[in-house]
Amino acid sequence: MPTARRRADAAKAVCGAVSDTLEALVVFTPSGKRGRFPIGTPLLQAARLLGVDIDSVCGGRGICGRCQILVAEGEFAKHGIRSRADSLTPLSEPEKRYARRQTLAEGRRLSCSAKVLRDVVVHPLARECAQKNDQGEDR
User: What distance in Å separates the CA atoms of residue 92 and residue 90, rounded to the nearest whole number?
Assistant: First the structure.
């Protein structure tokens, strides 16, 4: 079975049965790793299935903030897609709770809570967030 098909099947197992026609392309920068996933797939799950390194020490419960990503907005001719903030679900309750406790800069999302709605390009920020946290900044 081709790798892309296995990723889609694994994502369906996580997200529930979704029609094959309801998939979106998810591209992670700067690695360029990409794959098609069913609508509703959490970004953290997509990242793990593609081998993209995103931390989540809280187990994806929206508590630690280590899984932050930034949605790249605009036309990406190289990937043949237009990416924008509404390519993901609206801010979830765990993200809102996190934002009340810690800093969640504008445009940043928690990949454990943000789910794919359409083609999107995202940039993981875990290392940058961790470095700022270790220095006592950004929180």
Answer: 6
What span, in angstroms and rounded, lies between the C-alpha atoms of 128 and 137?
Answer: 11
Domain 3-134, CATH class in plain words: alpha beta
Q: Is 63 exposed, middle or buried (0-12, 13-18, 19+ CB in 10 A)?
A: middle
Residue 130 has pLDDT above 70, yes or no: no
- Give, rounded to a whole angstrom, the gap between the first and last alpha carbons of the chain: 45
DSSP for residue 86: G
Tokens at 5, concatenated: 């098909």
CA-to-CA distance for 109 and 67, rounded, in angstroms?
8
Question: Kind of pairing, strands 68-72 and 108-110?
Answer: antiparallel
For residues 103 and 94, what is the distance between their CA atoms, to the nearest angstrom?
13
pLDDT digits (tens, 9 = 90+) for 38-83: 999 999 999 999 999 999 999 899 999 999 999 999 999 999 999 9
Question: What is the chain's alpha carbon radius of gyration, rounded to the nearest angstrom?
Answer: 14
Domain locations along the chain:
3-134
